[in-house]
Amino acid sequence: MSQQLVERLQREFGDRILAATGMHGDESVTVSRQDLPLVLAHLRDQEGCEQLSDIVGVDHPERAARFEVVYLLRSYSKRHRIQVSVDAPEDEPVPTACGLYRSANWHEREVYDLFGIPFSGHPDLRRILCHHQFEGHALRKDYPIEQGQECTRPENLFSDEDIAHAARRANEMSSSPGAVVDELHPSDLLTINLGPSHPATHGALRAECLLDGETILDARTEIGYIHRCFEKEAEDHTWAQVMPYTDRLNYCSAMLNNSIYAMAVEKMFGVEATPRAQAIRVIVSELSRIIDHLVCVCTNLVDLGALTNYWYLYNVRESIYQSLEKLCGSRLTTNYARIGGMSHDLYDGFEDEIRVKLQELEQGVTDVTKLVARNRIFLDRTVGVGAISTADALNWGYTGPCLRATGLAWDLRKEAPYSGYDQYEFDIPTGTNGDTQDRIMVRMAEMVQSRRIIEQVLQKIPGGPVDLDDPRMVLPPKAQVYGSIEGVMNQFKLIFEGIQVPAGRGYGFGEGANGELGFYCISDGTGHPYRMKVRPPCFPIFSSFTSLVQGRMLPDAIATLGSLNIIAGELDR
Amino acid sequence: MAVDLEQPSNFITTRLRQAVNWGRKYSLWPLPFGVACCAIEFMSTVSSYNDISRFGAELVRFSPRQSDLMIIAGTISYKQAPVLKTIYAQMAEPKWVIAMGVCASSGGFYNNYSTLQGADHVIPVDMYVAGCPPTPENLLHSLVLIQEQVEKEGLVPSTVRHPDRVGA
Ligand code: SF4
Fold it and tell me: How far is the CA of B116 from the centre of ligand 1 (A)?
């Protein structure tokens, strides 16, 4: 489908499509910077590309046009996706896409921050991940990875001028003719920091709210507090060494990150994992999804004052963690998948143990549903709070449960099945209003579906090896390493030089716990990734936070924030 | 502490300092400076299965002014450093700090332009807990060790325990 889209574009724009490539099923066209807004507008309006999923910057110091910017677009109505790339010589601005896609705002800021590519017409081109006193651009190839820069003070998000402006605007809005209203003075307004160390942010992020009484006039967000340079670290390590770093992206669902990363690299080789490995990945991924949803729902409910649910659901989570620990030696940071397979097979008795735990889960979910579903306080705090429509959600870059809560039944496990998800039966729970209640309830329902999937896999889990028989990526068995010179060499090369991923690029993605988790990989044929860009699901979602809470009460902001499930590790990478 | 068993009475004799330290030891109020993955394990430690209240430290406070034990759970970035310093300064003496996990202890496996190589570059740390993330048991163990310290030297302010860090 995407191929036909490229042909249509070529017919429409002729020579202005400078190049078209299709590698590993990722169709991509190159256009000039001048034509970019035109092409993007055409794709959005004529070709149904409602979403700009990500913008990737790439540095090629040896080229005349040093940088490249890649736009990943996806159509939900027509079910295709395409990448548009432009070349950008140093210091020459690229026209902004903010007018077309709201998600472009933060993605462009990120590219500006890490590469120093300016975007002309961007409303607020500031750094986003690195701190405000940082100099230079960290993802440029000539920036040394270990060169830290001190930050002496946090940034002030609201200047006195901003506050005065907000007061003026509020006065204008409330002044209806004849009504006697007290004039709002800037000193009546209060700024309150949610974060970076605050119980309701569940991680290091910051939202500064400008309050009139308890009403939020304006909110500004700041992220980057745990920017751990995943992408730079990836360039500094071999492909296999990146795996533990993926654990710490969304640390509530490390297994999902592991599996999707392994899949993305396998895609670069054009291979798929063995049936058994795929089945194992599905089981552990769904367990991970359950844990992630449990954490999100529990903490969200705690913020609303419902502490009991936390005690109930955390026991379930603890019990699943114990199995995961038994399986891979670690509770949170699992590091279980490998490129081309898994680190090892399941242990004996795993299946039965998981079945018991799934029953506990069912019990926990039922208990909590009983406690909250018709609870007056819960409903008052969540219904209609932080609501967003499907069209807006797509434009902001929403994916996953937050998108499904708006009523769109879109799940990559169904739309672009991988790891054999097409063999299993499950439903896609959706909401109707896209508000906090829907987001929580969608997650609750998804846990039940995940359970369904796991039970089906457990019934027909295929036998056979977990690793591919492929010396390019899988370590040889120990008998060969100690018994033959080829084995020794193979092991040595894989460890010291790294897996030689074929040169090229590919975008591997899957349904993460929060939405579309993608890895945009570029390999130059050496053992290290040339560029690795993560598409973190909660990054675009959090960028919409301000618009969700403006004009609402402060407690609504807390309820909304929890239901969006912003995981700082994934947000800042 | 002493109880006179020969002539039972309603009195226990002890020294004031000991009584205070004994009380303080079992009522540490932790402030979780939770920034990353380790914070999730901190949450497990607080939850019903591991139950940190067995050690009297379940009163998790997010206001530094109400807490005396800071648990740094997660990676401290350069951007976060001034915030950490401010929050630590807002805690009243005597106060203790646990660096939970390798990130807070030394930067862990993040040796890069954004990650501070250990929280002790900005504030004094009393206890380092190994692990990435440390298991809840491991964290509880460190809590017990801190309690021992508290019992011994309860009212000694952190500036005396870490003379080299005064004014840092
Ligand atoms: S020590 Fe490990 S688990 Fe803890 S914050 Fe650092 S990376 Fe995460």
Answer: 13
